[in-house]
Amino acid sequence: MRRAYSVETVRAAEAALMQRLPEGELMRRAAAGLATACGDLLRRNGRVYGSRVLLLVGSGDNGGDALYAGARLARRGAGVRALLLAPDRAHPGGLAALLAAGGQVVDGPDGLGVLDLVVDGITGIGGRGGLREDATGLLHTVTRDRTPVLSVDLPSGVEADTGEVHGDAVRADATVTFGTYKPGLLIDPAAEHAGALRLVDIGLGPELPEPPDLEALQYADVAALLPVPGPESDKYRRGVVGVVAGSERYPGAAVLAVAGALRGGAGAVRYVGPGADAVIARYPEALVHAGPPSKAGRVQAWVVGPGLGDGRSAEAAVADVLAADVPVLVDADGLRLLDAETVRTRTAPTVLTPHAGEAAALLGTAREEVEAGRLAAVRELAARYRATVLLKGSTTLIAEARDTPVRVNPTGTSWLATAGSGDVLSGLTGSLLAAGLAPRDAASVGAYLHGLAARHGSDGAPVSAQDVADGIRAAWRDVRAG
């Protein structure tokens, strides 16, 4: 599992560790890991010896890490030059080490020639508010030939704690971070700037508290949560999920939500709505009912909302489902039709799965604000509605009303930006709820499998929602196989 901590927590952990280490040891560890990563990147594009490296060096420890790493590269035969953005505040020990190793300091970008690597050591995790204009211009100049950029700890100009980007920021090909991940490395839009991530162990682990601020599940974590039938299982032990979806205008939403539920391992799926004929034609194992949902039979969880449309019948269906004493997932049209106070006062769990536009409507704000501050938005939604919230998007986030780490899904892909994909996710997650997974786990596993399924379904080509549904089996097998 990838775990991320706020800057304040990281700073406190570093301070505690430094009290037990010789002076400068922590920076030496960071610089050694950074130099190794630089060397690996240079070797992929040629070799270390004779390569041309430019360090963009800001003030403080981030610039010091870059300078000490540059010294190591210089001793391995690389031509290393440093451009100091704040010469009077450059790290003195790092600068001395670079010069002693044969590195050079340059006054500006003129005459540098072709570069093999640019190391971004401008601001790191302490930066706020985007790059200054002079740094932006300098960066554009030295990378105009598409020179690879490696960022130190965090791409300069992005917000470490939130993933927000206020102004210009470095777009790195790779980022080497120290001790632990930072939230901004995992959450868009900042994550889009980070490139390939590499974590360097500097011994910080024992100093970091529980729980982290953010976590991202990996194969082993998801595999441990997957519901697997036992010898005594029947359809009720495996979980029966009810799906209230579709309308005369959107009959396909019913089919796709049921597809996701069946692929998610539900023992049975009860469908309620006007799309019964379309559902049975595609999935004859589904159990159908004309409604209302409360009369459809026993279920362990409900999914309501995909393709419901408007009108009194749709509103009544949402209210009926929310009155049930089982976990409920609300998506799409259901999010517009729900009563906020009803959600807040439910005793059974509720999962809300909005995209940015739906989240903005629930919060009474602009979509752009949600997209720019995804972490703040998902936390506010969870607190305001006292629900588990899965905020869909380029990075899907899952938050609870209680104080648990926000989860970020690492398997998302742009192929999921297709009509009906969210309906599949709703059914899939609903089936995991019915199988007995806790709401946060069901949402996390559902998002993880959903992303993998899109990759299987696309095979590098455009993907449909039905392709995503069909890819869930392969995603499930991948996770089980590790």
UniProtKB/TrEMBL annotation:
- Reply yes or no: does the keyword ATP-binding apply: yes
| Catalysed reaction, written as an equation | (6S)-NADHX + ADP = AMP + phosphate + NADH + H(+); (6R)-NADPHX = (6S)-NADPHX; (6S)-NADPHX + ADP = AMP + phosphate + NADPH + H(+); (6R)-NADHX = (6S)-NADHX
Show where the YjeF C-terminal domain sits: 218-479
Q: Which SUPFAM superfamilies match?
A: Ribokinase-like (SSF53613), YjeF N-terminal domain-like (SSF64153)
Q: Which residues bind (6S)-NADPHX?
A: 61-65, 124-130, 153, 253, 307, 355, 423
Q: What CDD domains does the record tag this protein with?
A: YXKO-related (cd01171)
Question: Which InterPro entries does the record cross-reference, listed alphabetically?
Answer: CARKD, Nnr, Ribokinase-like, YjeF_N_dom, YjeF_N_dom_sf
Q: Which keywords does this chain's UniProt record carry?
A: ATP-binding, Isomerase, Lyase, Metal-binding, Multifunctional enzyme, NAD, NADP, Nucleotide-binding, Potassium
Q: Which residues bind AMP per the record?
A: K392, G393, S394, T395, T396, G422
Q: Short name of one Pfam family for this protein?
A: Carb_kinase
Q: Which residues, if any, are the signal sequence?
A: none
Q: Which cofactor does it need?
A: K(+); Mg(2+)
Q: Which note does the record give on the cofactor?
A: Binds 1 potassium ion per subunit.
Indicate which residues the UniProt annotation says bind K(+). Answer: N62, D120, S156
Which Enzyme Commission number(s) are on file for it? 4.2.1.136, 5.1.99.6
Residues in domain YjeF N-terminal?
10-210
What's the family?
In the C-terminal section; belongs to the NnrD/CARKD family.
Which function does this protein serve? Catalyzes the dehydration of the S-form of NAD(P)HX at the expense of ADP, which is converted to AMP. Together with NAD(P)HX epimerase, which catalyzes the epimerization of the S- and R-forms, the enzyme allows the repair of both epimers of NAD(P)HX, a damaged form of NAD(P)H that is a result of enzymatic or heat-dependent hydration.
Oligomer and partners: Homotetramer.
Tell me what this protein is called. Bifunctional NAD(P)H-hydrate repair enzyme
Organism name? Streptomyces anulatus
